[in-house]
Amino acid sequence: MSTPFYVSPQQAMADRAEYARKGIARGRSLVVLQYADGIVFVGENPSRALHKFSEIYDRIGFAAAGKYNEYENLRIGGVRYADLRGYTYDRDDVTARGLANVYAQTLGTIFSSAGEKPYEVELVVAEVGDTPDGDQIYRLPHDGSIVDEHGSVAVGGNAEQISSYLDQRHQDGMSLAEALKLAVQALSRDTNGTQREIPAERLEVAVLDRTRPQQRKFKRIVGRQLARLLEAGGASTEAESSDDSEDVGKE
Amino acid sequence: MEANTRSTGRLPAAFLTPGSSSFMDFLSEHQPEMLPGKRQLPPTQGVIEAPHGTTIVAVTFPGGVVLAGDRRATMGNVIAQRDIEKVFPADEYSAVGIAGTAGLAVEMVKLFQLELEHFEKVEGAQLSLEGKANRLSTMIRSNLGMAMQGLAVVPLFAGFDVDRDRGRIFSYDVTGGRSEEHHFAATGSGSIFARGAMKKLYRDDLTEEQATTLVVQALYDAADDDSATGGPDVARRIYPIVTVITEDGFRRLTDEESSGIARSILERRLEQPDGPRAALL
């Protein structure tokens, strides 16, 4: 009769964490930054249709790195959670904090249950407030821990390096073009420090814009508007703003 | 769901199960008692008294569609509310106006808005205008039990069809029967009078401004002959709700704009109580 191998709990958890981290590292990193009028999501994404960022509710956005089918599942779960909660109570009762807690519990339970494969995802849940002080950004690593972030956050394989780059350069009250430029610079640095070029059509950009008149603040930035912002980020920074109607991808 | 979420902390399995992009489908599997159509109805005798909304009108013009409603809710011969809102945006490119039992209708609109928004968020694309109109049909049909007890909801749905590049109007009956209306439509107790007015005033080359004036004229005529429809209330500054949907999306006229239209119509009606005359053949 064969005896089962003994694996210490520490070792089992370390193995699961290692497995999840490796999975996440295979995908590209993405960044979420605060700017003067809201929160901007920037990532490199060759696909036009499979999004890394999306709207959850009026003021709440979602970003994810890792395995697509797993985070898509969590995203839809989040949309259902938010819509049901808003329908049961009121639209104001749907908060990023509540959603982040539910995600943390979900990821944590999956991570620590021996029967399930840990999710290879890292999430960001962000909510834009009426003022920059009211902005909330939560980072949720694969194990269900939850980190309250300020200013800027990066998730994905290369996250640590990008985060430290952003931490040194991010300032409060940046314009959208400035924040976008910083984000692209951070994403286009390779591990050995060299810069590479990310063409505009491979960038996925979305914002939670507190100045939007609509109740729903999430907006994708595509096409001409994105090109204009990228240009503006290089030179002056006041060119953009308030072209809501133009070129805006309806989500 | 709330208790469930709290007890285990994680999202219930139903939330993470791949399935339909419809919020109503999700609810009917996960929490069917939350859906208005699934409610158990107690046996009742006679008609239940509840506030009713009355006249909604819509008219298309080249480039869009206008949807408007009066502000009165009645309960029998009593005015239950003078400033009720019966016209709501359904999403960016469509709006819904409701006549019938106010409480149920407002709830239906809320669920309809959510249904469209939920689909849009899950799929990353909007439903077609036809799809939205059909979805509303399903919701009215699910209310049939209550409609039989006198709690009917009869909406008017209008939107800008981005695929066909024009405004369209859909009207409904209590059984969920849906029909597309051409040029103009009205629903509610004052609708016969409003329709008469629109029939005489409608042209197919109206500007947006003329179309908004036309619907207010029609509402004035409905209020003139139907006691359940409210006219512009100058003393309380309550004016009809007028919304315009074009390729730029949904827009509700500001109070200044709608009061401007209503006041200029009132002015002319002081001279000519029956309103503008159509040219004879």
UniProtKB/TrEMBL annotation, chain A:
Domain of life of the native organism: Bacteria
Pathway: Protein degradation; proteasomal Pup-dependent pathway
SUPFAM superfamilies named among the record's database cross-references: N-terminal nucleophile aminohydrolases (Ntn hydrolases) (SSF56235)
Molecular function terms from GO: hydrolase activity
Keyword Cytoplasm found: yes
Chain residue ranges for the region called Disordered: 232-251
Activity: how regulated: The formation of the proteasomal ATPase ARC-20S proteasome complex, likely via the docking of the C-termini of ARC into the intersubunit pockets in the alpha-rings, may trigger opening of the gate for substrate entry. Interconversion between the open-gate and close-gate conformations leads to a dynamic regulation of the 20S proteasome proteolysis activity.
UniProt subcellular location: Cytoplasm
Keywords: Cytoplasm, Hydrolase, Proteasome
InterPro entries for this protein: Ntn_hydrolases_N (IPR029055), Proteasome_alpha (IPR050115), Proteasome_alpha-type (IPR023332), Proteasome_asu_bac (IPR022296), Proteasome_sua/b (IPR001353)
Classification via NCBIfam families: 20S_bact_alpha (TIGR03691)
Known function: Component of the proteasome core, a large protease complex with broad specificity involved in protein degradation.
Quaternary assembly: The 20S proteasome core is composed of 14 alpha and 14 beta subunits that assemble into four stacked heptameric rings, resulting in a barrel-shaped structure. The two inner rings, each composed of seven catalytic beta subunits, are sandwiched by two outer rings, each composed of seven alpha subunits. The catalytic chamber with the active sites is on the inside of the barrel. Has a gated structure, the ends of the cylinder being occluded by the N-termini of the alpha-subunits. Is capped by the proteasome-associated ATPase, ARC.
Family to which the UniProt record says this protein belongs: Belongs to the peptidase T1A family.
Protein name stated in the entry: Proteasome subunit alpha
Gene this protein is translated from: prcA
